[in-house]
Write a structure and sequence with these properties.
This protein is mainly beta and 706 residues long. It has a domain at 465-558: Cytochrome Bc1 Complex, Chain D, domain 2, CATH 1.10.760.10. A five-stranded antiparallel sheet has the order 1-39-38-31-30, with no helix packed on it. Strands 2-40-41-42-43 form a five-stranded mixed sheet, with no helix packed on it. Helix 4 crosses helix 7 and helix 6 packs across helix 7 (530-542).
Length: 706
């Protein structure tokens, strides 16, 4: 396939009118995303378009604790010559940022953590000589001495806070695991968290913790309590049993105005909402809160009563634009649907018109969907919006025939097609469009850069076995496990691991511990009672199917329907069942509301060997844009490439192959006159090999370098 390069509207003289930034403000990488504004921008220009082809490896650091299926999504931060990062097993390590040598290491776990561990970085706070690094691992928030890596005794209990506490629920029944670092405002650490996507789930409260003591200073209820704004958009009492509406993607902070911008995800259960009839404010919402008090200033709900898993997937970017000859401070939020919402930062006024579309009613018993949904009219979407038969794969005659046969049995009519018993195409898929890597904004050009997935997924609603006093372990598995791990136990990796032959990897006792206590996004199931937990573990390890009696056969949150899992629409050979591109890299002119350029992003090495180049692929992790005219990004799942593009045109200027896929956002910084670019090579996505290396690049010391 020929490389597609569309230079649509790029004009350097016009773009040069964009307000310039103060270079020193973006000279380092002191926080996740490069800074509280989350624009992934650096004013460094030692590495530039003229010399980027000379980049070489400056150092590598092997963490040594990668495992099969592990990921490393961390965006490093650099403070005073020290790089703070996390490893696949969620150790926190400090490295000499110029040499990549270990300074200290902290392990938050007494033993190997259960299930997949994910972390996108750490937060840093300092007051004089008191310097702290904050990291969330499992359900604990740790405060570490930045110089030694040792827990800070006066923070919480022994240097950590149990995040399950203070949410108004039994802490033993609700998993919460922040995967994105919190954001620091004065002496507050503002934090969300990843929750279960099925019930029971923790409520998605946004909380501010005192950076010195760990005490909760304020809390915003995303599932409103009685008397709070939005309470009437939920059933009465939903705040007691419903869950999620959480911020797992991270936040942005306007320090000058004292505003924190918080995007939230869908409410639990994700795909069937009979017990949460209503619009479900503040799920799927961009919130503007007072950073010092948590008081709501304005909000925008992008999806009402979400049943498509349309979480806001990334922090917003705080940008400055030109509008009618004046500068406007704005907030730009990317979405899984492939759109960009742009609002005035102080008021929430949309900077581009939006349209409201009538939606189809659901045919699933008990489901009541919102009558309308809204989408922005500009900028145009950066991902295709509806899958039609003529868009199916033509890679081989066999693949084409199989895709057509399957497609004709499914519902596909674009955004907001209701979930169905027959199966509904979700396109862009559950992973976007945009994903957690987030957007990058260049203050020089006014361009917003977004890497996008172009995959179709299938959402099928299935009956959930009813709760009863006694049942067999196989039926119990179907009721409580199959919606994530599938009826055949194959799961939907990497999000939901396969349980096939779990006995070869875990003991029966270890499996029982995960069922009892939960792991990452999986809720605990101790409420079933110990006999049922033990029997379910034995069933998974040995296939021993027996009758069990349940401690709590009926639960207030039990629902009539579930899904048959997270299923990609693939051809018989495992490739996407649609025509390429399967992933794109996009530059969007936010001043004009138009696409500046778009290219396919990523490829499958095996297809490339057969002549199918630049097909695009799934990609996770964001980009860094620099004053040197460059856009650095890894992200692509299968080819393990790390790329440098011309930020003006999208031309590929340099690339290299990493030890494992760079599914993380890189960081760039300068030490003693030398600019470095570093990325985590962790892999592990879509069945790709896992790794555990950090790789730093710089110009040679002789020649163009310092």
């Amino acid at each position: 396939m020929k490389r597609l390069l569309l230079i649509l509207l790029l004009s350097a003289p016009a773009l040069s009118q964009t307000p310039r930034v103060t270079p020193s403000r973006y000279h380092g990488w002191p926080a996740y995303g490069g800074g509280p504004e989350q624009i992934h921008y650096s004013s460094l220009d030692q590495i530039n378009r003229a010399n980027v082809a000379s980049l070489e490896v400056a150092w590598t650091y092997e963490t040594g604790d990668a495992f099969d299926g592990s990921e490393m999504q961390c965006n490093p931060i650099m403070i005073d010559g020290v790089l703070y990062v996390t490893t696949p097993r969620l150790r926190v390590i400090a490295l000499d940022a110029a040499a990549g040598k270990l300074l200290w290491s902290f392990d938050p776990f007494d033993q190997r953590p259960q299930g997949k561990t994910r972390n996108r970085g750490v937060a840093y706070w300092a007051d004089g000589s008191d310097r702290r690094v904050f990291v969330a691992a499992s359900h604990y928030l740790h405060a570490l001495d930045a110089a030694t890596g040792k827990p800070v005794p006066g923070f919480g209990k022994g240097g950590r806070v149990d995040l399950r506490e203070g949410l108004g629920r039994d802490p033993l029944t609700i998993p919460i695991t922040p995967t994105s670092p919190g954001i620091v405002y004065r002496d507050l650490l503002i934090l969300g968290g990843a929750t279960s996507e099925d019930l029971p789930a923790a409520p998605g409260d946004i909380r501010a913790f005192d950076t010195r003591t760990g005490i909760i200073r304020w809390s915003f209820h995303t599932i409103p309590h009685p008397g709070e704004f939005g309470y009437d958009t939920w059933p009465r009492g939903a705040w007691k049993y419903s869950g999620a509406a959480n911020n797992w993607a991270g936040m942005a902070l306007d320090e000058k105005r004292g505003l924190v911008f918080v995007p939230t995800g869908s409410a639990a259960y994700d795909f069937y909402g009979a017990n949460r009839v209503g619009d479900n404010l503040f799920a799927n919402t961009l919130l503007a809160l007072r950073a010092d008090t948590g008081k709501r200033v304005w909000h925008f709900q992008a999806v009402k009563h979400d049943v498509w898993d349309r979480d806001f997937p990334a922090p917003p970017s705080l940008v400055t634009l030109l509008r009618d000859g004046r500068t406007v401070d704005a907030v730009a939020q990317i979405t899984k649907t492939g759109h960009v919402w742009v609002f005035e930062r102080e008021t929430g006024k949309p900077l581009f018109p939006m349209e409201t579309r009538e939606t189809q009613p659901s045919k699933v018993d008990g489901e009541v969907l919102a009558r309308s949904q809204s989408l922005p009219q500009s900028p145009p979407p950066f991902a295709r919006q509806a899958l039609t038969e003529d868009m199916l794969t033509k890679r081989t005659p066999e693949a084409s025939a199989a895709a057509i046969e399957r497609f004709r049995k499914l519902n596909s009519s674009g955004q907001w097609t209701p979930p169905s018993l027959e199966g509904t195409i979700i396109f862009p898929g559950f992973d976007g469009g945009a994903e957690w890597g987030g957007s990058s904004f260049d203050p020089e050009t006014g361009l917003l850069y977004v890497n996008s997935n172009e995959m179709a997924w299938i959402l099928r609603i299935v009956p959930r076995p009813p709760a009863q006093k006694s049942t067999t372990t196989s039926r119990l598995y179907l009721r409580d496990c199959a919606n994530c791990h599938l009826e055949d136990k194959k799961g939907s990796p990497p999000e939901f691991p396969s349980l096939e032959r779990i006995g070869t990897r875990r003991s029966e006792a270890e499996v029982a511990a995960v069922i009892r206590n939960g792991a990452t996004r999986m809720p605990p199931f101790r409420q079933l009672g110990e006999p049922a937990v033990t029997a379910l573990a034995r069933f998974l390890v040995t296939d021993d199917d027996k009758e069990v009696f349940l401690l709590t056969p009926r639960r207030s949150y039990d629902l009539k329907y579930s899904t048959d899992g997270y299923n990609k629409f693939l051809d018989p050979d495992g490739y996407p069942a649609i025509e390429p591109p399967w992933g794109t890299l996009n530059a969007i002119d936010l001043n004009k509301g138009k696409i500046a350029w778009k290219i396919p992003f990523g490829e499958f090495p095996r297809l490339a060997e057969q002549g199918s180049r630049n097909t695009g692929s799934e990609n996770y992790g964001g980009a860094v844009v620099t004053a040197g005219g460059l856009l650095f990004i890894g992200a692509t799942n299968h080819d393990r490439k790390f790329h440098a593009y011309d930020k003006w045109t999208g031309e590929l200027l340099w690339e290299t192959t990493l030890p494992a896929a760079g599914n993380a956002t890189p960081a760039t910084y300068e030490i003693e006159g030398r600019q470095y670019v570093v990325i985590a090579a962790g892999g592990g996505k879509s069945g790709a090999p896992s790794g555990g290396k950090y790789v730093a690049f710089a110009l040679p010391r002789s020649g163009n370098g310092p």
